[in-house]
Structure formats: C-alpha cells, structure tokens
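Example for tutorial group B:
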C-alpha cells in the first residue's frame, strides 16, 4: 500500500467540505476562495448529504489510513439520468416542471425544477418527492380559493377577528371554550406552551381565532407538514386557513369543492400520515413536549435534546416522525444518532436524518436486528444483533469516484479497528454501480439492496 496525494480537484473538494461544514463558510465566501461557480466542479458545488456529513471522515482520517493501492486507480464519473426514471409522471405538474436530466454528485441526485414561484434545486429523490408533493398541495389550495364556497367564506372572514373580539367581551367563557378543543387539551396546551420555546409556531391570536387548528387540519388532509418551510405552500396554507376559520368553512367541505379532487399520491417516507392524529390535534408546543418525552425515554442527553429541538431546520413534524421511528427501533446508544442529527445545518440534511431514522426502524429485521448505534469516522452507524456492523444510508446511487474510494477504505480500517472480525454491511435503497459493487466487495463489505419504501 502506498499513499497517493489527491489530485488538484480532489484537494479543492476536501477543502470546500472542511470550510463549509466546520468553518461556516458561506457560498459567497466559497466563490471568493475557489473562484466562480462556472469554474468550480459541479459535483463539489452540490450541497449534498454525502459532502456535508460523510466526507469529513476523509479529512479526519490519517493519510496513511486513506492510502490506496497504485493498482486500484480505476474510477468512474457520475452520469446524468432522465428525471422520469426517478419520478415517473410526477416530472410535470400544474405549477411545476422538472428539468429532463438530473445530475448526481456520486451519491445523491439533484433535481432542478421550474415552478410558478421560481426555480428550485432539490437534493435527493425522496426530498424531491416531498417538495413536488407540496407543490401539488399548493395547486390544490389555489383551486380551492377559486371555488364559490371559498368565496363566501372569504367574505365572512374579514369579520372574524372583529366578531371574536366582541364575543370575548360579552361572553368570554363561551368564546374561549369554542377556541380550545377539550379541557384536558386546554391545560396541555398551556403547559406545553410555557415550557417550550418552539411555541411560536402557533401564534396566540391564530390559536384563539381557530386559524392554527384549521391550518393543521387542512395540512393533514392534504398529507403535508402543517409547519412546512416551503414558502409557496406555507403562505397558501396560512391564507386559506385564515379565510376558512373566519368564514366557518369546514376543511372537508373546502377540499370537496376542488375541481377534479385533490388526487395527490405521496411516498410513505414523505408522508405525515404516520403521525397525523397528533399533528392535527396538538399545537407545535405540544408536539415538541411529546418529542422531548420520547427522547428522554431513550436516555438521550438533555443537551443533545435541547440542541435538536432548537434546530429550525427541523419542523415539529420532522421531530415527531423521527422520534417515533427511533422509539420503534429502540436501539442502545441512540444518543449518538441524536447528537449528529442535532447539528443538521440545512433543511435537506434534517430531512435526511428523519428519513434515515424511518428506514432503520422499518428495515431493522432485514438488517439483522439493529441493536445499537456506534460512531465510525464521525458518522452514526449500527451494530446488528448478529454482530455485523451496518451502514444503512438512504443514498440515491453510489458511484465509484475518488471520494467514495477513499471513504470506504478509511471506514473499513476504522471498523476493523473497533470491531475486529466484524463484517461491514452497506445497506441502501439506491443503486450501486457494478464498479462500486466490485470495489466495495474487495474491501470485505456485504451489500444489501433495500426496496424503496412505499
């Protein structure tokens, strides 16, 4: 084995990752440091999960550990693929169109989408599906706003706050009773709001006017996150909920008025249906309080819980779905996973951790029974009950690039150091190229292909 100094482009990639992840370098700072986007390699500019969370392993590992044999220099480049291969007919919607070809950074596909609200780039197949689903929900809400039923409700809505104010003076007990569903829920909402800084997701006046309750119910009926950070949907949800609550238009009646119906299909990974009752009936503060209780039950350190709950890259729905998945998994040392997840520095990173928790919980038996988490190269992976070391990642595809070659070499060395004799297992729902399969196999890894969820 001999050490090979990385190529000039590779040194740029590693330098970019180090500054972006650990140095807080902004995209403008990156441009000033390395040159314009036109000269910077496209795969390095992609803010992917792999670059943000796996590549730091390369920087931290000694060069000797990362050394490659001079005889194993065969590499391949990620190839663009038709977007329809990953999204089917969903490549076109009423308010969006996915560009025909989708690029890859070697592990995640990056979709460029033209919408009625501007251009977006979505990182990863499942994250793209989530966003396209939200765009379809936005289109459904826009149809609803054009219905006669909504027009009548909108006319009444202007009087909503005024009428509520008058009622509060003349009949305060009855007004508050109408605004809060159930005495037990009322006390729970008050207690949760006082103990959680995330209570601002449901503003007080919106709660009293019924807007927050309507917004959550409307979102759940559309199978979207009530607290979505996606501006087109978030704005439309709030506008529609305000008019419907003020105009006393029931959610189901409003949706029934949509021409042609809503008709939105969504994958189980992107869906909020697994927690729909909680998300519909409880405020953000109540949801956060429930998540805190789940994580405390898993013996998570208080500091890591606080960091996770204060990370605005997660919505309350993300936190609840992830916590429920980890509770179902019930693996030892889950604190390792939460510590890493709490540092998610972007929305797509947060979704990645939520999705990974769901995958681990759903596929534990297929992977030999996930028993515990362990940190390898700064990444939380798992020990199965059969003793195997399992790296289950929700990648789209794995291409044998220089980055992947060095990463698997260094990870293999560390796994053998901490678990001598263990068989490392790579599990992914994405594709692994024939070259990547061969090279990963040479390092002693077993590869498991997970069927896509729902």
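The residue assignment follows.
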């Amino acid at each position: 084995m001999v050490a090979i100094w990385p190529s000039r482009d590779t040194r740029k990639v590693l330098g970019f990752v180090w500054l972006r992840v650990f140095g807080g370098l902004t995209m403008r700072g990156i441009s000033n440091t390395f040159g314009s986007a036109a000269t910077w390699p496209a795969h390095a500019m992609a803010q992917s999960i792999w670059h943000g969370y796996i590549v730091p392993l390369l920087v931290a590992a000694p060069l000797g550990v990362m050394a490659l044999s001079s005889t194993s220099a065969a590499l391949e480049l990620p190839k663009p693929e038709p977007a329809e291969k990953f999204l089917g007919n969903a490549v076109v919607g009423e308010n969006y169109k996915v560009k025909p070809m989708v690029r890859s950074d070697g592990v995640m596909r990056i979709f460029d989408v033209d919408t009625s609200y501007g251009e977006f780039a979505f990182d990863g197949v499942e994250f793209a599906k989530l966003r396209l689903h939200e765009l379809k929900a936005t289109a459904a809400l826009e149809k609803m706003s054009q219905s006669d039923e909504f027009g009548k409700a909108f006319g009444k809505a202007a009087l909503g706050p005024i009428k509520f104010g008058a009622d509060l003076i003349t009949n305060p007990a009855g007004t508050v009773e109408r605004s809060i569903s159930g005495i037990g829920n009322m006390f729970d909402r008050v207690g949760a709001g006082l103990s959680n800084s995330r209570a601002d997701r449901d503003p007080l006046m919106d709660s009293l006017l019924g807007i927050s309750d309507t917004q959550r119910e409307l979102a759940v009926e559309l199978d979207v996150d009530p607290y979505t950070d996606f501006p087109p949907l978030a704005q439309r949800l709030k506008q529609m909920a305000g008019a419907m609550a003020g105009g006393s238009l029931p959610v189901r009646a409003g949706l029934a008025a949509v021409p042609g119906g809503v008709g939105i299909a969504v994958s189980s990974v992107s869906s909020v249906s697994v927690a729909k009752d909680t998300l519909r009936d409880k405020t953000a503060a109540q949801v956060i309080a429930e998540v805190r209780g789940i994580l405390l039950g898993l013996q998570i350190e208080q500091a890591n819980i606080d960091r996770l709950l204060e990370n605005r890259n997660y919505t309350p729905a993300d936190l609840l779905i992830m916590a429920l998945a980890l509770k179902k998994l019930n693996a030892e040392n889950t604190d390792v996973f939460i510590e890493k997840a709490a540092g998610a520095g972007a929305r797509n990173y947060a979704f990645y951790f939520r999705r990974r928790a769901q995958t681990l919980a759903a596929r534990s038996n297929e992977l030999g029974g996930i028993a515990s988490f362990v940190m390898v190269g700064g990444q939380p992976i798992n020990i199965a009950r059969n003793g195997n070391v399992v790296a289950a990642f929700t990648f789209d595809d794995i291409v044998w690039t220089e980055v992947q070659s060095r990463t698997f070499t260094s990870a293999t060395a560390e796994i053998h150091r901490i678990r001598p004799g263990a068989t490392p297992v790579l599990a992914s729902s994405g594709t692994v190229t024939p070259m990547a399969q061969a090279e990963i196999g040479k390092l002693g890894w077993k590869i498991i292909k997970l069927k896509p969820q729902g």
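The two ends are 44 Å apart (CA to CA). Compare this with the pattern of hydrophobic and polar residues in the output above.
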